[in-house]
Write a structure and sequence with these properties.
The protein has 348 residues and is an alpha+beta fold. The strands form 3 sheets. A 7-stranded mixed sheet has the order 1-7-8-12-11-10-9, with helices on both faces. β4 and β5 form a beta hairpin. The longest helix is centred in the first third of the chain and has 40 residues. The chain is rod-shaped, with a radius of gyration of 46 Å. The termini are far apart. The structure holds 3,4-dihydroxyphenylalanine. The site of 3,4-dihydroxyphenylalanine (DAH) has 12 residues, from β10, β11 and β12.
Length: 348
């Protein structure tokens, strides 16, 4: 009789002590099974009630049931405390410091040809030129015919052409423009003097590549037409351009050259900014560097545009952006620009 009661209080003491020591949910579970499970110590006592005399069963049963309730309540309470502790721990461990700086993002930059193109366009815009654009796939008419380069003219040899693979009126008439000069004709078709325009764009040539030639390149065409434009305007404008790009101290020189759409035609040279005219590798020991082609717009082209050729005159020019970028940056092979090697491109 007394011994069962003693057992119950022994169980209570042990159970509460062990419960206090259960430090995580696993050990709490083990504890619950040990005392309250089907084979648990307290369950054993409750099972034993059946074989007891009625008096004893009442007393022992009351004590055992009270303890059962108490242990169950204690277990729930402990479980709640442990779960809360676990949540707090997880929050602590997974805490993010949102004020830490993130990993740096790689940032892009402008391609060296884009940079030089923008500088060139800015120089002309600042002198009052507008910027226009034209198609890369062009008609024979604009690329050659209207520029006074008819089909069998030897000057066609100056531009090795990539033709489009289809015929119109029994012959191939479309091509990848070999220069930006067709835009002289296109601009004149839809505007009236005074005209001051520069036209940037990609051009294509059917030729082998080497350190100074690519099959694709970027040109800027220029056209100015107005009453009374003279060669002095051409020289003043292009000398100013050369100085804005290559330095105010540049000396410039014009030499005769031939282009079918200008008369007279010429090339613009600057004194070599590497050797200052002494003669070096960059200028081919001549002391001078050629930077563009130009000339006075042929009167026939002015008349074909429907302008009064007695009244209006103009000048035109064309330059290669890659060539200018090569010179500015001292790069010795044009092919680097389009090889897409970041080790090269990141230097600009
Ligand atoms: N289109 C010529 C070329 O690609 C460059 C050129 C020369 C353009 C003289 C002009 C010019 O407008 O007047 O070789």
């Amino acid at each position: 009789m007394t011994s069962e009661i003693d057992t119950i209080s022994a169980i209570q003491q042990a159970a509460l002590r062990e419960l206090a020591a259960a430090s995580d949910l696993d050990s709490l579970d083990a504890w619950r099974i040990a005392y309250l499970g089907r084979r648990g110590r307290l369950t054993g006592v409750l099972r034993g009630l059946a074989g007891m005399p009625i008096e004893e069963r009442r007393r022992v049963g009351a004590g055992a049931n009270a303890l059962k309730e108490r242990l169950e309540a204690a277990c729930d309470e402990r479980r709640a405390a442990l779960e809360e502790a676990r949540v707090t721990q997880v929050i602590q461990e997974e805490r993010l410091d949102v004020t830490l700086p993130g990993p740096p993002l790689p940032h892009g930059r402008l391609h060296p040809i884009t940079q030089t193109l923008r500088d060139v366009l800015r120089a002309f815009r600042d002198m009052g030129f507008q910027v226009a654009e034209g198609p890369e796939i062009e008609w024979d008419y604009y690329n050659f015919e209207a520029l006074r380069i008819p089909a069998d003219h030897p000057a066609r040899d100056m531009w090795d052409t990539l033709w489009m693979d289809f015929e119109h009126d029994g012959r191939r008439q479309m091509l990848l423009r070999t220069h930006t000069s067709p835009n002289q004709i296109r601009v004149m078709e839809h505007s009236q003097p005074p005209i001051r325009v520069v036209v940037p764009g990609k051009c294509y040539r059917f030729e082998a590549t080497d350190p100074t030639h690519e099959w694709m390149m970027t040109q800027v065409e220029g056209l100015a037409i107005d009453a009374g434009i003279s060669m002095a305007d051409l020289k003043g404008t292009l000398a100013e351009f050369a100085r804005r790009i290559f330095g105010q101290e540049r000396r410039v020189a014009f030499r005769c050259d031939y282009f079918p759409f200008v008369e007279p035609g010429m090339e613009l040279r600057i004194d070599c900014f590497i050797c200052r005219g002494e003669g070096c590798r960059t200028c081919g020991r001549s002391g001078w560097i050629e930077i563009l082609g130009a000339g006075m717009v042929h009167p026939e082209i002015i008349a074909n545009a429907g302008y009064d050729a007695e009244k209006y005159t103009g000048f035109a020019f064309g330059l290669g952006i890659e060539r200018i970028a090569l010179l500015r940056h001292g790069v010795d092979d044009i092919r680097y620009f389009y090889a897409n090697d970041l080790r090269f491109l990141r230097q600009f």
